[in-house]
Amino acid sequence: MLRQIEGSQGIAEAVALCRPQVVCAYPITPQTHIVEGVGAMVKDGRLTNCEFINVESEFAAMSVAIGASAAGARAYTATASQGLLFMAEAVYNAAGLGLPIVMTVGNRAIGAPINIWNDHSDSMALKDAGWIQLYAETNQEAADLHIIAFRLAEELSCPVMVCVDGFILTHAFERIDTPTQAQVDAFLPPFSPVQMLDPDDPYSIGAMVGPEAFTEVRYLAHQKQVDALEVIPRVAAEFQAAFGREAGGLLRSYRVDGAETVLVALGSINGTIKDVVDAERAKGVSVGSVCIGSFRPFPLAELHDALAGAKRVVCIEKSLAPGLGGMLASNVRMAMRGLTTPVLTVIAGLGGRPITRTGLTEVIRAAGADALDDVTFLDLNRPAIEAQLTRSAGLRESGPIAENLLKALNPGLVRRVSPRKEAGQ
Amino acid sequence: MTDDTPQKVRFYQTGTHTVGNRLMDEAARTVQASPDRSNAITSGHRACQGCGEALGARYALDAAMRASGGRMVAVNATGCLEVFTTPSPESSWQIAWLHSVFGNAPAVATGVAAAMRMRGKTDVRVVAQGGDGGTTDIGFGCLSGMFERNDDVLYICYDNEAYMNTGVQRSSATPPAARTATTQAIGPHPGNIFGTGKNMPRIAMAHNIPYVATASVADLHDLEAKVTRAMSIGGARYIHIFVPCPLGWGSASHDTVKLARLAVESGLFPLFEAEHGEVTAVKKIRHQVPVEDYLRPQGRFRHLFREGHEDRPTIEAIQRMADANIRRYGLVEEDAA
To answer: Which residue of A20, A30, A342, A385 has the smallest Cβ count within 10 Å?
Structure first.
């Protein structure tokens, strides 16, 4: 059914159609509307045979999901930002135990400084936890990916993280086509794990493994992700056949044929990128883009093929690896075996800063003129940075970065001098 | 055979009050005495000689197993019990068992219980367990959450008063003056600080959960009875079991039960039951002993008893803690006090 609804509501309804049996919730912006939506459906009886558990932390949320999944129930939760980091230990544990939990991450920046707005710092921090990591481009795909995620998780015995840009998708009202229960039931069979906690067939799950077998266990975790490279496109094709629209898959290329500059990005920014590609193509600029749908497993071979004809690759990424540059770019470089194509990165949209068509157009022009640095920060307030660097150059105790920068941006603020310095020491 | 003369009760262990199992009423005999006893943790595990936790866990889980007819799942926090029972590929567990991480056993158990309900397996009971570190420190938040929601889980804490698995470091359950690897017996105030304490059974009671009990490996009948009682109740339940650790306490491995008994008889570890936040039963002390009797055999308190330099103020301070327990719970009969 086509409706104009909030992204979070679309996700909540898609999750409910997957018939989860245990949903655990802990509030953190911007994922709250999702679990509120699922909770309301449990409470008013639209979603039956499901327990909605309000827990005391994200760590508990993932832990309840672990217990529920290990005992044979389909389990779901959602989180973001600090919450994802707070549950990090359990996130790794869920993957290590091979539990097919599905979790939405409403992507948000990590503090300090505390910031509630969108970027990908949170999911990037846990990219190697052993979960399959999918990124949604639109609200429709955000909803659809959850139906796909349960299929993938249970087929592979591997948890799946569905990454949805906070606010940009979670809080935006857009047209979403919600499938029927019959459609979803036909696509997603009931959960029937081969091994679970059962008094009739008691297993010990979660035993200690020493050096003699640990590497093999980890190898199998890697192999599972390699297998997922085959399963993800197949399930996406099945989804398209069943629901009549595209969702999921490893990556989607846009006008890359003959493109000299190819932009690579994750998530909702691909919409803006495609608009800019169209506008630049209309002006005769040779540019295309690739939207990566699956960051884990990372589609090395498919990306290699998609980028093979490019003269340069520019990653537009919403996270920063301080001291290196960008995680997306360093992963993309792994796909460039045998190619000498430069892979540049543009750090953009951190902490919710808008990535504009103007900004992206400038990036494409600079790239085309080979005037783009390896690492570029889009729309950086250079004067504020220079002022802070100059001011802190002579000081050994420079203090918190954010507060110092705010002082520079707001000259009206009283400048505090440390008592020691005031005393002339 | 009939014999009208009353049978003289014989004590099997000199200096104990343990009545031989065969002299007890059939129904009151220990689970362990039954030829077809339940067997949650089978032999061959890697616990140290004289391990109080292994003893406590076996009695507790066998009683739980008997109470549930074997329809149960155990969730384990990281710790000695987890490590010594499951060195992969071996496992001592004869029941369905799950270990996730250190601090989340209560929440994992909540998830297991919810899953069992949703899968229509309403007869399956869930027991979560951890050491004092996993309970009073790192798992504290998850435990409080499980209590407050009144989730259908029995949580058992095996309290040996420090992080033994990592090499005897202080936990919030470590008693004052005790030497651990992080509260060394050196300096002007050797051993652990005199903090305010963290009384987990009373914290559990403050949640008004249906059942809270303390138990000791010194009284295994009492321990079994409390586990059995807990298993007959729904909702969140908590049992705190005192389990001496020869390795961590610097005590002889054959003194585990004796030390557990002296902790009870001195008043340092009161045995009681509580329902919905109110104490309902207290186990009286039969032969009160000074705390010194309990402290002296333990290496972790050795610095209190250096020849010619006995630390009387500290010993007296610990005695005051025992006296406070005796007053609070009425542990000594009025005529005996």
So the answer is: A385
Between chains, do A67 and B103 touch, taking CB under 8 Å as contact?
no
What's the pTM value of the predicted model, to 2 decimals?
Answer: 0.94
Report ipTM for this prediction.
0.93
List the domains of chain B with CATH numbers. 36-329 (3.40.50.970)
Final residue of a structural domain among A180, A211, A243: A243
Specify the 3-state DSSP secondary structure of A377.
Answer: strand
Are A164 and A195 within one domain?
Answer: yes
For residue B35, count other CB atoms closer than 10 A to its CB.
4
At B265-295, the pLDDT tens digits run 999 999 999 999 999 999 999 999 999 999 9
Distance from CA of B317 to the nearest CA of A (A): 37
Domain boundary among A198, A217, A243: A243
The answer to whether the CB atoms of B107 and A207 lie below 8 A apart is no
**Shared domain check, A239 and A270:** no
Dihedral (CA of B22, B25, B29, B35) sign = positive
Q: What is the pLDDT of residues A344-358, one digit of tens each?
A: 999 999 999 999 999
* Burial class, B89, CB count within 10 angstroms (exposed 0-12 / middle 13-18 / buried 19+): exposed
Asked which of A51-55, A77-81, A121-125, B17-21 is least confident by mean pLDDT, the reply is B17-21
Q: What is the CATH number of the domain that holds A281?
A: 3.40.50.920
Same domain, A237 and A321: no
A199/B95 CB distance under 8 A:
yes
- Judge residue B244's burial from the number of C-beta atoms within 10 Å of its C-beta, 0-12 exposed, 13-18 middle, 19 or more buried: buried
All residues of chain B having their beta carbon less than 8 Å from the beta carbon of residue A69 are: 111, 115
Residues B238/B214, Cβ–Cβ less than 8 Å:
no
In B, minimum Cα distance to A73 occurs at B115
**Same domain, residue pair A21 and A73:** yes
What is A255-324 written as a DSSP string?
Answer: S-TT-SEEEEEETTHHHHHHHHHHHHHHTT--EEEEEESEEES--HHHHHHHHTT-SEEEEEES--BTTT
Nearest CB neighbour to A63, from listed B108, B148, B149: B108
Structural domain range at position A372: 251-377
Distance of CA A66 to the CA centre of its chain: 21
Beta bridge partners of A3: A176
Three-class SS state of A79: strand
Taking a C-beta distance cutoff of 8 angstroms, is the pair A128, A69 a contact?
no
